Amino acid sequence: MLAQLLDQGDKDRAFLNVNSNEVVLLVNNLGGVSALELGGITAEVALQLEGSYGIHPVRILSGTYMTSLNGLGFSISLLNIVNTDIGGPSMIQLLDYPTEATGWSSPVLKETWEAKNEATREEEADTSQATKPSDLKYDAAAATKSITAALQRVIAAEPDITKYDTVVGDGDCGIGLKRGAEAILKHISEKPLTGDAVVDLASAVPVVESTMDGTSGALYAIFLNALTGALRGLAPGAADPKVWAAALKQSSEAMARYTPARPGDRTLVDALHPFVDVLGQTADVKKAAEAARAGAEKTKGMKASLGRTVYVGGSGFEQVPDPGAWGLSCFFAGLAGIEGEDGWEKL
Q1: 260: Cβ–Cβ under 8 A, 6 or more apart, which residues?
Q2: 23-29 and 59-63 as β-strands: parallel, antiparallel, unpaired?
Q3: Cβ proximity of 205 and 251 under 8 Å
Q4: HSE on the CB side for 254, CA within 13 Å?
């Protein structure tokens, strides 16, 4: 869009020759763009104007000025500020004047726009802070292989999870899980596991916190932080399945203090709870993963008590499992080394 406005080499569509030191940018919502999306669009337009064209708007107007009802789109307008020599207030002063016109969003000053936003963190999560070793040991090589398989299983299942969440939610669950899985894979490739359960888990938690969003991202962050604390309380020794089961039980109880989700509510808890229970009873990761799978499959047709499915409505919940539970069961399947089979990623 900016090229169509500004590329003087395109004789058919070179709409504006910027010949002023003062340019005003207006990004208009055609009616169906959310405030969050419009903010992101405006920031990107301003960034491209500066980086590609050397244009620093003296005023930025962003809002819903002229719509096409609830049109899913936006328009970009650029205004050369020139001296009209007619006396009176300048064009900038006129734009800055207060108004009671409905729908008119006040312009943002250049100084305000370019001021550094201290509340925004763009740097990667700092995982460099050392965690005190716990001497709770495990086989780092075997764990790397299992965790990699588990994360790859989640990534492979993303299309199905997204499809399920499109039916009963807002369609972002699969992408969120995939983003988190890819970030953890990158993390362990750059910082190999040490074989200390607490050190390695504590190192991964900030990655989850910074890459996974939505309600499930918050729940995973709470759960993994609690799991780190539980493991430290069980150290030192060997981090065998019984130790992991005890720590998982403690972290599940901790997470329950922050969410009302319980088995039967059609959430990721429907896969997590049976995994933790069966692992505690049998110390067998494969049996626990199979229990998680069964729990996730039971959510198909289960009426939701919590989450977006509650107010999405319709009968979609009868055709698909809960996306969060399904994604977690896929992780457990990969962790246990269960090969893909009919009905595992496909119902």
Answers
A1: 306
A2: parallel
A3: no
A4: 18
In which residue are the tokens 């039916």 written?
167
Amino acid found at 309: T
Mark out the alpha helices in the chain (DSSP H runs).
2-6, 35-53, 91-96, 110-114, 140-168, 173-190, 197-211, 214-234, 241-255, 269-282, 285-298, 309-312, 323-336
Q: Which CATH superfamily is domain 1-114 in?
A: Dihydroxyacetone kinase; domain 2 (3.30.1180.20)
pLDDT digits (tens, 9 = 90+) for 77-134: 998 887 767 777 888 888 899 888 888 888 988 888 877 666 555 555 454 456 888 9
3-state SS of 113-145? HHCCCCCCCCCCCCCCCCCCCCCEECCHHHHHH
Query: Tokens 């990699």 map to which residue?
Result: 148
**How far is residue 20 from each of residues 57, 111, 172, 210, measured CA to CA in Å?**
11, 18, 43, 42
Right CATH number for 136-336 from 1.10.630.10, 3.90.180.10, 3.40.630.40, 1.25.40.340? 1.25.40.340
pLDDT tens digits, one per residue of 270-320? 999 999 999 999 999 999 999 999 999 999 888 766 665 555 555 566 778
Candidates 145, 187, 161, 191; CA nearest to 268 is 161
Q: Which residue has the tokens 């990158």?
A: 186
Residue 25: what are its φ and ψ, rounded to 5°?
Answer: -105, 130
The answer to whether residues 169 and 312 touch, using CB atoms and an 8 Å cutoff, is: yes
Instruction: In whole angstroms, give the CA distance from residue 17 to residue 274.
Output: 65
Peptide bond into 236 cis (omega under 30): yes
pTM across the whole model: 0.63
Instruction: Say if 1-114 and 136-336 have the same CATH topology.
Output: no
Domain ranges of the chain: 1-114, 136-336
Cα angle value 238/127/257 (rounded, 5°) = 70
Q: HSE (CB half, 13 Å, CA atoms) of 218? A: 5
